[in-house]
Design brief:
single chain, two-stranded antiparallel ribbon, 13 helices, mainly alpha, Rhopdopsin 7-helix transmembrane proteins, 4 strands
Amino acid sequence: MASFPAAETWTQGAGGMGEDAQGNLSVTRLGVAAAAGAVRAEWLNLLVYTGNVSSPGLAATPAPSQPRANLTNQFVQPSWRIALWSLAYGVVVAVAVLGNVIVIWIILAHKRMRTVTNYFLVNLAFSDASMAAFNTLVNFIYALHSEWYFGANYCRFQNFFPITAVFASIYSMTAIAVDRYMAIIDPLKPRLSATATKIVIGSIWILAFLLAFPQCLYSKIKVMPGRTLCYVQWPEGPKQHFTYHIIVIILVYCFPLLIMGVTYTIVGITLWGGEIPGDTCDKYHEQLKAKRKVVKMMIIVVVTFAICWLPYHIYFIITAVYQQLNRWKYIQQVYLASFWLAMSSTMYNPIIYCCLNKRFRAGFKRALRWCPFIQVSSYDELELKTTRFHPTRQSSLYTVTRMESMTVVFDPSDGENIKSSRKKRAIPGDPGFNGCSRRNSKSASTTSSFISSPHTSVDEYS
């Protein structure tokens, strides 16, 4: 989406090379200049399309570079700076791929983690891991060396996949926001089933493919003297290119963030706007606390995404409108910094889950137990075990029992006591009914629809 800084500088260099070809040069220089003159018209025509060379799909597409013999590249960096940038990008890729793969394993390998919200988190993790693995380093190398080493097919993929992955990521977050909204604001409605969730995820990817398809369709490989380029050549030129990327920014940034901002604002007011009326039982307070934790975690995920991608989108718009900025000496460093920040969004989510959710934290400990400084406690093992749900006749709430291994000794003399206790629990008017006092039963029933519903469980919010 952003222009590569050196485009206009190289254009001027190409013009200078054409003039050199007319002068009195040595035989060697005449050969180089003649070759440059032969491609000059085609080269400058190409620069018209790539003067605001954009990464077709969130990747930076460097501008056509000069033949090495005659043109100087003002953006060549010293070795120490290249090493630092390589380390920074390498850390992003390593953390993003490892962290998101562990997130996917935690959710799919443990039945207790297979909730509607977590299925969307799997989709989000897959998108982030894929973009980090297949896009980040390739685009960094292209931006650094201004030469495409990876062939025509990967050029199409490189231009196509990043937009697809970002679309899938942010609309997975949007689906989670809408799901949280429905669960908290209108809890009596049935939740999405596993089949419906898969249909939503499939629909997200189909729309992502459609949005990114033009990038694949118009991708081109251009072999220049001593240089190979990968770019998108739009039929109607730069204006069409700019319009498309403005549409992409709206669809993959502005619109979903607006939806999530509205839904999480309403949910936040509902959850934090005031205390529950009455002196309700501990179960209600526990579920309210769990809901707040989940919503807080997802708000942090969304805000992190918005902050990471904002400088990249601003960079693209500003350099497209004020193209003279592409000649600025430090513009390449600005681009590499903004692109690094955008790509780093793929590595933060696993860290956020681990810090703010006890089950994800337990899962990361299990996955990384081979590290000498990580110890897995019995509590961590228990957190990921399956729970049983026993619906009672008197309440829509579920009684949750963890499947713990224990030894129980029965005394035959306790049989009558057990029967009598069962009869007491069956009486709705009993003071201990459902864990709340009789005095607070009215207020408890008033808030039950706010705190819980027959379609959700405690696991959904823990």
